[in-house]
Amino acid sequence: MAKELDYHPNVAARNLKLKKKIVISVLLPEEIASFYDVLREGIREASRPFESTIELQFRSYPRLGEGDAALFEQALEQGANGLILAPGRPETLKTLIRRAARNRVPVVCVTTDAPGTERLATVSSDAYTSGSMVAELLSRCLPRGGEVLIVTGDLGTYDHAEKVRGFRAMLERMSSGLRVAEVIEAHDDPELAYRRTAECLARRPELSAVYVSTANSMPVVRALDERGALGQVTVMTTDLFPTLAPLIRSGKVLGTVYQRPRAQGRMAFQALYQFLVEGNCPQVRRRVPPHIILRSNLDLFLEILPGDFEEAVGPLEGAEGEREG
Q: Cα–Cα distances in Å, from 3 out to 7, 8, 16, 116, 279?
């Protein structure tokens, strides 16, 4: 009947009548801050024009899959009109997402998906493509092959598992001489990432490459550096932050896959807001194309990215002359 009458829900109008704001609860991890803080800022940026009608409630939990279910339940009990969350372990959230859907509280997933649930939409970097890109690049850089260590977060997280799957599939498709030696799950814990990487390096001193598929790369770099392997082993990381930029500039890290967290935050808010206010159903999966950043284009990315990277830019020696030429 609603379809026949062309009825669209308008939470904004309903709440305006009741002199209430639309409450959007944002559930995101604290780790890794260099990624999730930028994503939060993207959500804030997109919401600023609607401050008179929107109330954002940020709720944080330690890491992906640790404490998000309790905060989800809390948000529902306190009357959230919509939720944005990063589902670390979708299986544990399936019942809550179903409950939210039945209560007409739309859920938008960001950074990673919760397939098989009643979430409204997902905004994330294309994880399978990210893994495939890194595998292709490393295969071309290391034509003689060798062993690769993958350091990820949690293979129960859709995004993390898809990167590994994409990496393996591209190696097979290219008949690459590279092979995956180990996959380490560090659960976005810096100390765990450092310790498990150091242990792997002790077991496998002949590693040719390391791929860190989350933003938790600095502990891995530290382990490589302490063993004297940094600069000898080809390293690909994920995302861009001030401490990583000098390592790419010096060539100690080959490059990084930038997942555009700020853009993901903006798009997630826009998808939820437009559904709540206008009844427009967003695209179920909005995949953000990942970018590969190398030494050759690092300064360009540092220029166009907002002020959180200012300290990493430094003087662009010769940059103006090169552009003019």
A: 6, 8, 24, 25, 12
Q: Do 116 and 145 reside in the same domain of the chain? A: no
pLDDT at 303: 86
Contact of 74 with 59, CB cutoff 8 Å: yes
pLDDT at 10 over 80: no
CA–CA dist 204, 206 (Å, integer): 5
What pTM was computed for the model?
Answer: 0.85
Cα distance between residue 147 and residue 119, in whole Å: 39
Number of domains composing the chain? 2
Q: Do both 238 and 131 map to the same domain?
A: yes
The 10s digit of each residue's pLDDT in 83-110 is 999 999 999 999 999 999 999 999 999 9
Both structure tokens of 248: 């790419």
**Is residue 2 a part of any domain in this protein?**
no
Distance, in Å, from the CA atom of 188 to the CA atom of 151, rounded to the nearest integer, reads 10
Its domain, for residue 179, covers 127-259+293-306
Could you report how far apart the first and last alpha carbons of the chain are, in Å? 65
Strands, E, within the chain: which ranges? 22-29, 54-61, 82-85, 107-110, 121-125, 146-152, 178-185, 209-212, 234-238, 255-258, 285-288, 291-294
Radius of gyration of the chain (CA): 21
Residue that the structure tokens 């390391």 belong to: 210
Assess whether 173 and 252 both reside in one domain: yes
pLDDT of residue 312: 37
pLDDT, tens only, 258-301? 999 999 999 999 999 999 998 999 999 999 999 999 999 999 99
Return the pLDDT at 305: 75
Pairwise CA distance, residues 247 & 230, whole Å: 10
Over residues 212-228, the pLDDT tens digits come to 999 999 999 999 999 99
Cβ neighbors of 260 (< 8 A, separation 6 or more) are 125, 288, 290, 291
CATH number of the domain that residue 43 is part of: 3.40.50.2300
Residues 83, 172 share a domain: no
